[in-house]
Amino acid sequence: MPRAERAGPPAGATGRGDAAAARAHTADALATLVAIMTNGDAPATARVSAANAVLDRAWGKPRQDFELSATGDPVAAIQRARQRVHRQRRAGAAETDSGKGAGRGKAADRGKEAGQDG
User: Fold this and answer.
1) First-to-last C-alpha distance (Å) of the chain
2) Which of 32, 55, 68, 101 could form a disulfide with 74 if both were Cys (CB 3.0 to 4.6 A apart)?
3) How many angstroms separate the CA atoms of 89 and 96, rounded?
4) How confident is the prediction for the chain on average, in pLDDT?
5) Which stretches of the chain are DSSP H helices?
6) CB neighbour list of residue 74: distance below 8 Å, 6 or more residues apart
7) The pTM is what?
8) What is the pLDDT of residues 49-62, one digit of tens each?
9) Cα–Cα distance between 39 and 37 in angstroms, integer?
10) Above pLDDT 70, what percent of the chain?
């Protein structure tokens, strides 16, 4: 199977020792990133990418915080959502009971829609 169609490490790679071999090239890799980052003739996208890679390695990737609710309490937000759903279901049930087909139930209404008498 051609390499492009296969997932996983290259043939023969065990994962053991690969990290150590890669770490042996850390200084060269960092120097290459810095050279690209500081090369005014390099495309801007390459320079930004290299700069991000250097910053990530030096300081770690930035945290991506997000707020789950206006109050910051995810449990309270879930409880409020459940209450809204419950109120909507009660309101929908009240409309069904007061409208056409009241007292017949949903199964009877489905049968009627399908052309069956209930």
Assistant:
1) 61
2) 68
3) 10
4) 76
5) 18-23, 26-38, 44-59, 74-98, 106-113
6) 68
7) 0.41
8) 999 999 988 888 87
9) 6
10) 59
Distance separating alpha carbons of residues 53 and 46, to the nearest angstrom: 10
Tokens of 86: 């419950």
pLDDT number for residue 118? 47
- Domain ranges in the chain are 17-59, 68-99
d(CA 14, CA 90): 60
* Nearest CA among 37, 70, 64, 73 for reference residue 53: 37
Which residue type is seen at 89?
R
What whole-number distance in Å separates Cα of residue 63 and Cα of residue 59?
11
Highest mean pLDDT range out of 33-47, 59-73, 79-93, 94-108? 33-47
Alpha carbon distance 81, 75 (integer Å): 10
Distance of CA 87 to the CA centre of its chain: 30
Locate tokens 């052309």: which residue? 115
